[in-house]
Task: structure prediction
Amino acid sequence: MELRKINRQDAFSEWQFITELPAEENGVENSHHGISFEEYVEKVLPKIMSYEHPENMPDWFVPETVYYLWDGDMLVGEFRIRHHLTEALRIGAGHIGYSIRKELRGRGYGTAGLKLVLERAREIIPEEEIFFRVRKDNIASQRVLEKNGVYVSGEDDEHLFMRIRK
Result:
């Protein structure tokens, strides 16, 4: 398995992945659900790629790098690293978000992918701990995090807040 940063060469597979994700799942909205390949290549891909080194963004915006997890020639998941946290992200989405292709869940891809992305995150993130937020009803994601050494640091009515030391 390997992580590849979002890129133009893999655009068709990236588009298939991003548009097949549900419009909403586990509290995360996918505004790209169902868009055309042309719109993805012309508008969405350049915009997402610009998030790594943003220019002219609002003050609240945090740089973000998107990686895709590949198993051979099959794209199996997406991982996003937010480069640092605002106060809203500290109590919200955290540093890393991910999704695994629905039909491939439960096969260890989330655990393996998170292990790889944590290596990258440790090079990018300046904070001493890497923050996560997971819904309490998303047991599978909680297990992925725990298998990678992430621990529960707090909770609210709907979420667990989890962390791992860099």
